[in-house]
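Repro case for the chain-ordering regression, as requested:
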Amino acid sequence: MKVLTYDYSKCTACRACELACSMHHQQEFNPARSRIHTMIYPEEATYIPLACTQCEDAWCAKACPAGAISHNYDLGVWWVDVNKCVGCRMCELACPFGDVSVNPQTGKAEKCDLCGGEPECVLFCVPKAIQYREPEGASLNKKKAVSAKLKGSHKEVKL
Amino acid sequence: MAGWIGKILRVNLSKNTWTVEDLDPDLAKEFIGGRGLGTKILFDEIDPKTDPLGPKNKLIMITGPLTGTFASAAGRYMVVTKSPLTGGIASSNSGGHFGAELKFAGYDAIVFEGKAEKPVYLWIYNDKVEIRPADKLWGKTTHETEDLIHQETDPDAKIASIGPAGEKLVRFAGIINDKARAAGRSGVGAVMGSKNLKAVAVRGTRGIKVARPEEFRRAALMTLEKIKASPTTAVGLPTYGTASLVNVINAHGIFPTRNFQTGVFPTADKTGGETMRATIEIRNKACFACPIACGPVTEIKNPKFKGSGEGPEYETTWSMGACCGIDNLDAITKAHYICNELGMDPISFGVTLSCAMEMYEKGYLSFKETGSALHFGNADALVEMAAKTGRREGFGDALAEGSMRMAEKHGHPELSMAVKGQEFPAYDGRGAQGMGLQYATSNRGACHVRGYMISPEILGTPQKLDPFSTKGKAGWDIGLQNSTAMLDSCGICLFNTFAIGAEEIHALLVPATGVEYTKESMLQAGERIWNLERLFNLKAGLSAKDDTLPKRILEEPLPEGPAKGQVVRLSEMLPEYYQLRGWDENGVPTKDKLKELNLV
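-- result from build under test --
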């Protein structure tokens, strides 16, 4: 199942992801209503985009008393049925990552729905810091990057 | 309205009041936004003869209809005011995140009037606006100011502020936002300082609508594909920053060295983008919504100049490098950080220092006067003078007046490398005739981003022109000046034009605003803006006699390198320029031209 993966070393802090997300879901450019956010740490030269990780066992769905958050098995996405959502904010309280919130204008919960399988944030991410792909590959790539560094130190030790 | 928010925040600092006004849709259509609309507001509301540092001058921070959208690099805002450096129109552009945030708060622009009794800063949270005391912030650097305001307001606020340079009315003080992005040129920071306005902090949580979202999205994606396909925007700028130009321009022999005494700097590579990447650069960083990401994030490890921040850029590695005969990248970068923190334009500072260095070497300035050995190549003096100029200490007080006033005061005005009082940027016009003409005619004095003739004359885009020929250059200049004025009014970054042109901008502007511009009417808005800036300058007292260049550039041939023997042959181009502009021989727009542009 494809998920959003992030390569922080590639993120340039441009926040195009936030604009693409809010335009797709809200029909306006509004980072405050985006479901993905890039945190910018200028002193550390670190920029971190973050959106719903689509938990296997979702905190938000478990907390929802209205049964409004359910799993779409085809896409691997947890989505909010706005007809059932009562805006009680239990999902907001339950999510450990801050990846679901109630829109003050509509009173309904909003979270990443992977744009139905074609995430706009990925489309607009020119440096390819955000990708939509099978997660196994993503962690393997991370391992490869770490082992490449280890390889160097191993060589030094041998010498 | 779509694209535009349709609201202008007007702040009267003398009366400590603010109001929100509707943006006139007809004016928005005619002048687009940013530089154009800002000029229109300034032209209508102030006497161009007014003292730029007096309370009757106004300071306008203004976005464009594309600012805050996902159009490529659409995070720009413009600061428009009367310049204390040139006495003419100032419009300084900046990126970062401040401009977009202003729109998210619900405003296209802020117009500051009058002068606060005591230091203040403006805090905007959507429709909540407060003029707050800034006594505790006065004297602080731009970095300290941002940190303190973040504590007092909201950690997500975006902030534009002045440093000590703006407070002390350094004539080339800038406004710094997001700690490292600058509305740098023409002394807009001094105007802010003259109003006792230390900073503007804004947080916005509202949306920006466009007229036809799907069409706009397609245009934005099409533009991104072009940015990704251009070697300059996809590889050169993100990898090596703007300083990737150092070796290119030096190789053409138009890299002004030691106050424009030559155009070749033998050790230029030590200050170029490639060296920067290999030594001090940690990574690259983008402004808001920018797919190019040309900003270098850097750290100086050398304990003598230790520090970290963003930059330097091409212009600053040159103005404080080759122009001062300095090839120590650590020292240049340190001086660049100081310029950002104290809030001043490193171009004008570097070129003013290089002027002082030439005067020092020629015996026109003594050690007694300068308090420092201002030899070309003295990297320690560069760092020392940057700090002193930003605070007007010692000889820094003389440098803070800019090269024209400083050189004049000491009897050698011919050594000021400036046009209309504003110092040259990093290209010697003698080896690029069209660029020379552009410098002479630019409405804000010497400037590279009013009509970047280096593109066709040196880099060969969109087509290669013979840099030493004057033929046809007037027409090229006018075309670039007009299209740049248009682009500067939309709210997107000029660097887009390495990959896209009027076609793509038109494809973005129409669905964003819903205004049915034709490509011609859109470009005509650029011409209208240029002419209005000209009218402002004429009313301010500038005239054809100011459309000139320093004696050195007109009469002293470049002594070596590929452009050896060249001077700017301005008299071959200027009459044609006036004629093609529809101006009379005195450089005054004719009635017919003004009528054609709807400026009467």
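Ordering looks correct now. The radius of gyration of chain B is 22 Å.
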